[in-house]
Amino acid sequence: MPDSDTEFTSGATELPAPIRAVPLRHPGRWIAAAILLALLGLFLYGAATNPNYQWNVYRQYLGDTRIAQGAVVTLELTVAAMLIGVVLGVLLAVMRLSPNPVLRIVSWAYLWLFRGTPVYVQLVFWGLFPSLYKAIALGIPFGPQFFHLDVQNLSAPFLFAMLGLGLNEAAYMAEIMRAGIDSVGEGQREASIALGMSWGQTMTRTVLPQAMRVIIPPTGNEVISMLKTTSLVAALPLTTDLYGRARDIYAANFKPIPLLLVAATWYLVITSVLMVGQFYLERYFAKGATRQLTGRQRRALARIPDGGELE
């Protein structure tokens, strides 16, 4: 008969039986996915076999040089308008948060005007700008003029489109910037003031760099939205953009459906590239904001020996 010590030792070495975990089944998900895939397949098959789409015309104009040139103009207009919107939006946001009541009122009035009227109406007014103002002159009243611009002889629809889109975008970017600035804790401002920084230095050196992780995601969405909003510059009129080129072509061959599909394809490709860039930009500015380790950080930690330090 084994003694008690032997029984205790043998019992301690026995491992518990493994747990047989049965994964929870979700048949509803598979059924819903199958239904959606079937509906998508039916739609794609119907579109591919529908002669009214005129896929031969679509393939003919997909790589047309006029369409490609229009895409370049659309990108240039998007970049220029967003630069105006971002720079002016930062200025308006700082004015909105300024202790100066005059600056706050001017900023609020700007946002009220440009956010309260449709962008298409604003672009129409910019197209009629030469009819509203014959010339722009700066100088002393009843005295010499330092600057004179004859608006009647100025034919620059791209310039007016850039200004119209950029000034409208600045109103929305100002609210995005203000939300990002407000997301920074009050203690950061108090610490900067305690270090002897002025209000402007506190904004540029402390608040705005930390607010970027809140500002970047909606700003990326605004860039994508601006790319699509450029199709409204037909109100000026400006016909050298992507949609304008497609419209001119189908006005000549009377085949709007395939040309609209061509323009939509180009818009989809460009927005897809912008979305990828936005993803990496958000990930860059999100460093330190989450406890989840990146792949590079996990690989670095894996090289640390037990009880050692990272080389």
TrEMBL record:
GO terms for biological process: amino acid transport. The chain crosses the membrane at residues 30-48, 68-94, 106-129, 257-281. GO terms for cellular component: ATP-binding cassette (ABC) transporter complex. Keywords: Amino-acid transport, Cell membrane, Membrane, Transmembrane, Transmembrane helix, Transport. The keyword Cytoplasm does not apply. GO terms for molecular function: transmembrane transporter activity. The keyword Glycoprotein does not apply. It comes from the Bacteria. Its main location: membrane. CDD domains: TM_PBP2. It is a multi-pass membrane protein. SUPFAM superfamilies: MetI-like. It is found in: Cell membrane. Residues 71-278 form the ABC transmembrane type-1 domain. InterPro entries: AA_ABC_transptr_permease_3TM, ArtM/GltK/GlnP/TcyL/YhdX-like, MetI-like, MetI-like_sf. It holds the Pfam family BPD_transp_1. Belongs to the binding-protein-dependent transport system permease family. This is Amino acid ABC transporter permease.
